[in-house]
C-alpha cells in the first residue's frame, strides 16, 4: 500500500515538474516563466521527495528528504525573485499584454536603487 501511495506522490510531482517545463516554453516573458517554473517545480520536487521518503521508510532517508524539501522551498522563490528582478533591471522586455508595471520609473540605473512607491513616500511615521 505504501508503494502505491509513494508512486502516486512521485507521479503527481513528475506531472507538476512537467507543467513547470511547459510553462517555461509557453509563457510569454521572463517574469511569467520564472513564476511558472518556481511554483510548479518546487512543489513537484517536494512531492517526488515525499514519495521517496514513503518508498524507503527509513529515518536517514526521511531526514535527507526533509532537508532537501526545506532547501528547495527556501531557495527557489528567492532565486526566481533575484533572476526576475535582474532581468527587469537590465531591460528584458515585458509581455505587451502586461496590465501594470509597478516598477516603471522607480529604478535609478546610475545608483542601482529602487525608490519607494508614491503612496509610501509622503507618509509621516
What does this structure look like?
The chain contains four helices and two strands. By secondary structure, it is mainly alpha-helical. The mean pLDDT is 90. Helix 1 packs antiparallel against helix 2 (30-56) and helix 2 (30-56) runs antiparallel to helix 3 (59-90). Strands 1-2 form a two-stranded antiparallel sheet.
List keywords for this structure.
about 120 residues; 4 helices; mainly alpha; two-stranded antiparallel sheet; elongated; single chain; about 70% helix
Distance between the termini: 59 Å
Order of helices and strands: HHHEEH
Poorly predicted spans: none
Q: Tell how many strands the DSSP assignment holds.
A: 2
Q: Mean pLDDT across all residues, rounded?
A: 90
- Overall shape: it is elongated
Instruction: Give the strand order of the largest sheet, numbering strands 1, 2, ... along the chain.
Output: 1-2
Short description:
The chain is mostly helical and 125 residues long. 70% of the residues lie in helices and 3% in strands.
SSE diagram, text form:
Blueprint: H1 2-26, H2 30-56, H3 59-90, E1 107-108, E2 113-114, H4 118-121
Antiparallel strand pairs: 1-2
